[in-house]
Amino acid sequence: MRPLILSLLLLVVGAAASAAELKKVKFLTDWYPQPEHGGFYHALLKGYYREAGLDVEILAGGPSSFALPRTASGQADIAMTATEDVLLAIERGLPVVAVGATMQHDPQGIMVHDASPVRKFEDLEGRTIALVPGSAWFSYMVKRFHLKNVKERPLTFSVAPFLNDPDHITQCFVTSEPFFVQKAGKKARVLPLQKTGYDPYRVFFTTRKYAAANPEVVRAFVGASIRGWKEYMEDPDAVHAELQKRNPELDAEKMKFSWRALKEGKFVLGDPEMGDVVGRFVDARWKFQYDVLKDLGLLKKGFDYKTAFTTEFMPK
Fold this sequence. Notes:
Elements: H1 3-21, E1 23-28, H2 38-45, H3 48-51, E2 54-59, H4 67-72, E3 78-82, H5 83-91, E4 96-103, E5 108-113, E6 128-131, H6 136-144, E7 151-154, H7 160-164, E8 170-173, H8 177-183, E9 188-192, E10 202-207, H9 208-213, H10 215-232, H11 237-246, H12 252-264, H13 283-295
Parallel strand pairs: 1-2, 1-3, 6-7
Antiparallel strand pairs: 3-10, 4-10, 5-8, 5-9
Helix pairs in contact: 2-10, 2-11, 5-13
């Protein structure tokens, strides 16, 4: 056999063997591809998952992604959600555990028109808010600010109702809906939910069974993802090009808006003065979230809140 052909064969065999050694991981996001997932895509594009021995497939979510039951049933290995969702899922019997923080703070808020008399949360008395039914933050806000007459209407996941009604008030993501309002020539203000004191993490999680059976896989995924998030928050361009391929409805202006909102709001990187570290959890914040859900009656049975998250897979 000629030396050149032999060398090529060895390269092909070596590449196949290397690919076979990679551990396949199905990662489910909470929405269609967007900058709010940027760190994961950065880790994928830069090859950080492969360096860590993983073959990661990012599965796009959406309004009906059902991340918790799909992960619990094995359709995904790791997925995205928020702190309270993990706590509520555990009480319902789903054996899940959060392994890292996608965001140190939740970028949700309440959006009002710029001319609205609503300037603070107490001003919501007597008004109607469009939101996801059953949202824990809404119950917390009503109790915290002693609101007696605030009504709910289902969120439509569209800014059209807001644009057509100067009195419309809606739940939003600081990174998204204000952009579309601005593009339509309107002005809006956002009351960040973080200012109510309700401040969950956005997390990625897996099942206890998967974590126990694949500790090195989870550790590798957490480490590579955190690396991806740090770098994405410094330079988003390559990721944005990939996101646009996967979600053609995105444009460069919208992605830049979302990325800037994530950075300026310190949602991902957090605030070091508050003890925030990219990807990491603080026990006290999980306890606060657990106590809030218990106080609101949303958690009825009760369990050890420490079982809802772990820091054992964090990079040293």
